[in-house]
Amino acid sequence: MKRLHFVATSVPEAQSALSNLRQQYDDAGPEKAEIIVALGGDGFMLQTLHSFLGQGKPIYGMNLGSVGFLMNEYNEDALYERLTKAEHAQIHPLRMRATTAETCIDGLAFNEVSLLRQTRQATKLRILVDGKVRIQELICDGALVATPVGSTAYNLSAHGPILPIDSALLALTPISAFRPRRWRGALLPHHARVRFEALEVEKRPVSAVADGLEVRNITAVDVAEDRSIAMVMLFDAGRNLDERILTEQFLD
């Protein structure tokens, strides 16, 4: 049996589940644990991935949140057996470098890096891929780069493509594009380096968000996948991330 450590979001339902599970199963603590069990929704899963970054501990989530796409169904029974049979998904984050007039700030995102307008004014962005200008001026509410894991989150809401987990692709997706109106985004190889340059920044301020990290008043943002970092997520047998992403493409 693997040594477990349980973590939970602050909502009462998750805290109650945390107490129940700690009574039924030994909690080895964060240092000695071999598997982290996270109780909450997708947002809490992202927090947990960041909290245990670089520690080599697989994370098994149980849904006690709203969406729970990255989580397994909550069930207190036969946990050790489910973990023994669980299927693994290895994921890599995006690394963001956001530049402002004063500084540069780095961040990691397992879902997406998004740029968003800060005021009523639409933003204007120049988009470069591997150093080549691909769009000279995009007038929009924003744009994002999503990983396969994140392709079913904000990216999907912005009408971006759903990416299979092993596709080695990134989704570059505009958010409410005004001009060029017909541009719907692009599929990029996972090694592509994307640069956004904010235009008319005093009139049209832009923020950049990497999972939970927000940087306001950016002038440029560089985004690339960081393959030196890998995290493992665990899913119940027959309900792995590949299957969930495939199923999502056939839903209304």
Largest pleated sheet: 6 strands, antiparallel
**Which structural class best describes the helix and strand composition?**
alpha+beta
In CATH terms, the superfamily of the largest domain is Probable inorganic polyphosphate/atp-NAD kinase, domain 2
Which percent range fits the helix content?
10-25%
* Low-pLDDT residue spans: none
Please summarize what this structure is:
By secondary structure, the chain is an alpha+beta fold.
Describe this structure in words.
- The protein is 18% helix and 40% strand.
- It is of the alpha+beta class.
- The chain folds into 2 domains: 4-91 and 230-248, 3-Layer(aba) Sandwich (Rossmann fold), CATH 3.40.50.10330; 94-225, Probable inorganic polyphosphate/atp-NAD kinase, domain 2 (Tumour Suppressor Smad4), CATH 2.60.200.
- The strands form 3 sheets. A 6-stranded antiparallel β-sheet has the order 6-5-16-13-8-9, with no helix packed on it.
- A hairpin with a 3-residue loop joins β5 (94-100) and β6.
- The longest helix has 13 residues, at 12-24.
- 39% of the residues are buried.
- The mean pLDDT is 93.
Please render the helix and strand layout as text.
Elements: E1 4-8, H1 12-24, H2 29-32, E2 35-40, H3 42-51, E3 59-63, H4 79-85, E4 87-91, E5 94-100, E6 104-109, E7 112-117, E8 123-129, E9 132-140, E10 142-146, H5 154-157, E11 169-175, E12 186-189, E13 193-199, E14 206-210, E15 213-215, E16 218-225, E17 231-235, H6 241-248
Parallel strand pairs: 1-2, 2-3, 3-17
Antiparallel strand pairs: 4-17, 5-6, 5-16, 7-10, 7-14, 8-9, 8-13, 10-11, 11-12, 13-16, 14-15
